[in-house]
Design goal:
By secondary structure, the protein is an alpha/beta fold. It has eleven helices and 14 strands. The longest helix has 18 residues.
C-alpha cells in the first residue's frame, strides 16, 4: 500500500473500489454555515471491510450519505472527489446515480422501522429494486424477493413476503433491510450502525450473517459504528473520525494494539473489559469535555486532549507511524 500524507489515506496496491479525497460537507443553518465533514480521505479495496468509528455527531453518517449523493443541496454543500471504480460520482448526473444506488452501491440504514415503508409489504420493498435495476416483471421480482429474504436467514421467507414492517421483530426488520440492499448483488455495501437497538444475541446473528454474505458475494463493506467491539470482529482496517476529521487509520489489529491518536486512546480506554482486568472499584475512563460546537483552530481535539501543547494550535500533519498506520497528531512529528 502507498501513503498520501496530506489526505491521511492509505491507497491499496490494487486499484481501489472506492476512493474518497478531501470530502468536505457544510450545512447552511440559521446561524451561518456548519462544517460536518472536514476534508476526509480514504480508500476501500474490493472485498475489504473498513470500519468507520467515532462518537455520535462526528460525521460518519454524513460521509456515507455523501458517497451516495443523498444529501439535499441546499442546505448541504459537498465538495471533494468520490470515485467508484474510477468513475467520479460527484460529477454524475442524477439519472446515473439512480442506476448506481441500490444496484452497485447499497446501504443499510440505521433505523429499520423508519427506513422501511410502513404501508408496503416487505416483499414489495425488496422486489422494487429488482424491478428497477434488473428489469424483472412483478411475478419474477416477487420470486427473487423471496430468495433474497431466504438468503439473509428469514424463516418461512415466502410467507413473510406479504407481511408489513410492524409485523416483524427488530431482528427480522434488520434482515429485511439487508435483503433489500443485497438483492441486486452490489459491489459495495455501506452498513450504517446495522446492529443499533438490537439485543446482543440478535446483534451477533446479524454480524455473523454479514460476514457470511461478505465472503459469499465478495462484498466490500464500509461499516459505520461507534462500537469498537464490533469493529474488532468485522473490520480489516479502521478509520477514526473526530469532529468531521479523520484522525487515524490503521489495520484493525494494529490500531487495537498500538493506538496512536489521543482520541483513539480515549475511545479504547472507555470500553469495559470482559476479562475483569480493571482494578476493584476503578471507574471507567471517559474523555473529558464534548465535541466542539465551534471547532478550535489547529488540532480539533486539543481542548480535550491530555497531551495538548502550544504547537497544537496549528493544524497537525498526517504521519505514518508504521506501515499502513496513519495518525494526524503533532506528537509524532
Amino acid at each position: 500500500m502507498s501513503y498520501q500524507a496530506n489526505n491521511l489515506a492509505v491507497k491499496p496496491d490494487a486499484a481501489p473500489l472506492l476512493e474518497v479525497r478531501d470530502l468536505t460537507v457544510n450545512f447552511d443553518v440559521a446561524r451561518g454555515q456548519v462544517r460536518a465533514v472536514a476534508g476526509v480521505s480514504f480508500d476501500l479495496a474490493p472485498g475489504e471491510t473498513l470500519g468507520l468509528v467515532g462518537e455520535s455527531g462526528c460525521g460518519k453518517t454524513v460521509t456515507a450519505l455523501s458517497i451516495l449523493r443523498l444529501l439535499q443541496s441546499p442546505p448541504a454543500a459537498v465538495t471533494g472527489v468520490i470515485r467508484f471504480q474510477g468513475e467520479d460520482l460527484t460529477r454524475c448526473p442524477e439519472t446515473r446515480m439512480r442506476q448506481i444506488r441500490g444496484d452497485r452501491i447499497a446501504m443499510v440504514f440505521q433505523e429499520p422501522m423508519t427506513a422501511l415503508n410502513p404501508v408496503l409489504t416487505i416483499g414489495e420493498q425488496v422486489a422494487e429494486a429488482l424491478r428497477l435495476h434488473r428489469g424483472l416483471s412483478h411475478p419474477e421480482a416477487w420470486i427473487e424477493a423471496g430468495a433474497a429474504l431466504a438468503r439473509v436467514g428469514f424463516p418461512d421467507a415466502s410467507h413473510r413476503l406479504g407481511q408489513y414492517p410492524h409485523q416483524l421483530s427488530g431482528g427480522l426488520r434488520q434482515r429485511a433491510l439487508m435483503a433489500m440492499a443485497l438483492a441486486c448483488d452490489p459491489e459495495l455495501l455501506i452498513a450504517d450502525e446495522p446492529t443499533t437497538a438490537l439485543d446482543v444475541t440478535i446483534q451477533a446473528q446479524i454480524l455473523a450473517l454479514l460476514a457470511r454474505l461478505k465472503a459469499e458475494l465478495g462484498l466490500a463493506v464500509l461499516f459505520i459504528t461507534h462500537n469498537l467491539g464490533i469493529v474488532a470482529q468485522t473490520a480489516d482496517r479502521v478509520a477514526v473520525m473526530y469532529a468531521g476529521l479523520m484522525v487515524e487509520q490503521a489495520p484493525t489489529a494494529e490500531l487495537f494494539r498500538h493506538p496512536g491518536h489521543p482520541y483513539t486512546v480515549g475511545l479504547l480506554n472507555s470500553v469495559p473489559r470482559l476479562d475483569f482486568s480493571h482494578p476493584p472499584g476503578e471507574i471507567l475512563s471517559a474523555i473529558a469535555g464534548h465535541l466542539p460546537a465551534e471547532p478550535p483552530s489547529g488540532c480539533l481535539f486539543r481542548d480535550r486532549c491530555p497531551l495538548a501543547r502550544d504547537r497544537c494550535r496549528e493544524e497537525p500533519p498526517g504521519v505514518e507511524v508504521s506501515p499502513g498506520h496513519l495518525v494526524r497528531c503533532w506528537n509524532y512529528v
